[in-house]
TrEMBL record:
<dbReference type="Pfam" id="PF00151">
    <property type="entry name" value="Lipase"/>
</dbReference>
<keyword id="KW-0964">Secreted</keyword>
<dbReference type="InterPro" id="IPR016272">
    <property type="entry name" value="Lipase_LIPH"/>
</dbReference>
<keyword id="KW-1015">Disulfide bond</keyword>
<dbReference type="GO" id="GO:0016042">
    <property type="term" value="P:lipid catabolic process"/>
</dbReference>
<feature type="active site" description="Charge relay system">
    <location>
        <position position="275"/>
    </location>
</feature>
<dbReference type="GO" id="GO:0004465">
    <property type="term" value="F:lipoprotein lipase activity"/>
</dbReference>
<dbReference type="Pfam" id="PF01477">
    <property type="entry name" value="PLAT"/>
</dbReference>
<feature type="active site" description="Nucleophile">
    <location>
        <position position="167"/>
    </location>
</feature>
<dbReference type="InterPro" id="IPR029058">
    <property type="entry name" value="AB_hydrolase_fold"/>
</dbReference>
<keyword id="KW-0325">Glycoprotein</keyword>
<keyword id="KW-0378">Hydrolase</keyword>
<keyword id="KW-0479">Metal-binding</keyword>
<keyword id="KW-0358">Heparin-binding</keyword>
<dbReference type="InterPro" id="IPR000734">
    <property type="entry name" value="TAG_lipase"/>
</dbReference>
<feature type="binding site">
    <location>
        <position position="205"/>
    </location>
    <ligand>
        <name>Ca(2+)</name>
    </ligand>
</feature>
<dbReference type="InterPro" id="IPR036392">
    <property type="entry name" value="PLAT/LH2_dom_sf"/>
</dbReference>
Length: 504
């Protein structure tokens, strides 16, 4: 069955690509400003408002019937509490997927007094993708009409309304926000759908003007056949791209092969894993309130990988998911973070700077560095130093180190240069150089670099430290060698923080 589903998915992507390429500015919504008239019955046709009373989706909820006051009383709608509308996206199965159970359960545990309502439009979403796209406006208008009715009937405060839409459901939330009388408090887009929404006008997709605060999580922005399953462009007040919005830890094909039968099942698992990661990150933010993940404002993912963007000054960092905070006068603010492969997804980001001197025979050096961090609580394993470009000689190199656990205050750093036989990558590097790097005696030339100190900034605490060589006479390093650095005061201002800046 999954083989058939995967084949259909590929065929569908091709159809969407061909369809979208022939459509100017998304002519699916040709009736400008969506001047479509529905009577109440037609508007809500095939859409159900399922107000949850149980964490288990197998237990029937209470159905809210727009326009029928008795359903509010029967369902126990609490107008003084927060109200959440959870909106699913396109479906190939015709039923709720596993993420819905997780999100509803987490929301009800975090906000036990809240009204949690599932917007069930599966009959309209279980169609060819272009047809499902065409239905998003009607569903959004139905949601807006329901909210307007709640305002009239119960004086529902719009500031307490939060729409949470996944994939195609994110754009449904946007159309609802556009159509409602007044301004909704918040819309969260969980990897909003890309095909047929990328590059269109604000009024034809979710955008920052659809609510008082619009936050977006982008987790699947890789292109295939000229389009991305998740929208690539920033469309909210803040747009957060975990792991660059690209490959998510634990979702690679090799990782999927480890626990699967192989073949097309793995490709489907990769798509599902990366697209749904936005939902799981949001669930994680609900369940792990004491340990919130931070994202950092940056112009692009490459600068973030260099560790340049770990500042929290002037609202340049923010919590992700449910705990994200509205920032003043910001729109389309792009933010980045790295995550773990599983919940809890949060970790610790370190910016590291080290000036690398060329001391001997190292003009063409391409070292593979690792750092081991020693903390007040415990130590890390060797962490790979990911330099986006080749190491800069006689220059200051800046890079990002991410650790999955909080090891406490950093006490010591060990820098190692991977030897030629320690990994396959270093072996091949050494083999290529060995043809050109032998001296007159027929022995390989030993490359020597020097690193006198390492400067570190922790994103989560904003603390800065300088680490100098533990033995001042040992600052030079060659393949297979290590240098240990300890804290010292060396010109980089130290600003200790009493606690992690998680509760912004």
């Amino acid at each position: 069955m999954k083989n058939i589903t995967f084949s259909l998915w590929i065929v569908l992507l091709c159809e969407i690509s061909l369809f979208a390429s022939g459509v100017e500015d998304n002519e699916l919504f040709k009736d400008e400003e969506f001047k479509v008239l529905y009577d109440d019955d037609a508007l809500h046709d095939q859409i159900t408002y399922n107000m949850r009373k149980s964490l288990n989706l197998d237990v029937d909820g209470c159905i809210l019937l727009p326009g029928e006051k008795r359903s509010l009383q029967e369902c126990g709608f609490n107008v003084t509490a927060k109200t959440f509308f959870i909106i699913h996206g396109w479906t190939t199965s015709g039923m709720f997927e596993g993420w819905m159970q997780k999100l509803v359960s987490a929301m009800m545990q975090r906000e036990p007094e809240a009204n949690v309502v599932i917007v069930d439009w599966i009959p309209m979403a279980h169609q060819l993708y272009p047809d499902a796209v065409n239905h998003t406006h009607q569903v959004g208008l139905s949601v807006a009409t329901t909210i307007n009715w709640l305002q009239e009937e119960q004086q529902l405060p719009l500031q307490n309304v939060h729409l949470i839409g996944y994939s195609l459901g994110a754009h449904v939330a946007g159309f609802a926000g556009t159509s409602v009388r007044g301004t909704i408090g918040r819309i969260t887009g969980l990897d909003p759908a890309g095909p047929m929404f990328e590059g269109v006008g604000d009024d034809k997709r979710l955008s920052s003007g659809d609510a008082d605060f619009v936050d977006i999580l982008h987790t699947y922005t890789r292109e295939a056949l000229g389009m991305s399953i998740g929208i690539q462009q920033p469309i909210g007040d803040i747009d957060i791209y975990p792991n660059g919005g690209d490959v998510q830890p634990g979702c690679s094909l090799s990782e999927m092969l480890t626990g699967a039968a192989g073949g097309s099942e793995c490709f489907m698992d990769v798509i599902k894993c990366e697209h749904e990661r936005a939902v799981l990150l949001f669930v994680d933010s609900l369940m792990n309130n004491e340990y919130m993940s931070l994202a950092y404002q940056c112009t692009d993912p490459e600068r973030f990988k260099k560790g340049i963007c770990l500042s929290c000054r002037k609202n340049r960092c923010n919590n992700i998911g449910y705990n994200a905070k509205k920032m003043r006068k910001r729109s389309n603010c792009k933010m980045y973070l790295k995550t773990r492969a599983a919940t809890p997804f949060g970790g610790i980001h370190y910016q590291m700077k080290m000036h690398v001197f060329n001391r001997k025979h190292a003009d063409d050096a391409d070292p593979t560095f690792h750092v081991k961090l020693y903390g007040a609580h415990h130590d890390t394993d060797d962490l790979h130093v990911d330099l986006p470009n080749k190491v800069g000689l006689n220059l200051t190199n800046t890079f990002l180190v991410f650790n999955e656990d909080d090891i406490g205050d950093l006490l010591k750093i060990r820098l190692s240069w991977e030897g030629a036989t320690e990994s396959l990558g270093s072996f091949w590097k050494n083999m290529k150089k060995s043809f050109w790097s032998w001296n007159s005696n027929g022995t390989p030339i030993n490359q020597v670099l020097e690193v006198r100190r390492i400067r570190v900034k922790c994103g989560e605490t904003q603390k800065k430290f300088t680490f100098c060589a533990q033995d001042p006479s040992v600052t030079e390093i060659s393949p297979g060698q290590v240098i240990t650095y300890i804290k010292c005061r060396d010109g980089w201002e130290v600003k200790p923080s009493k606690k992690r800046l998680h509760n912004l």
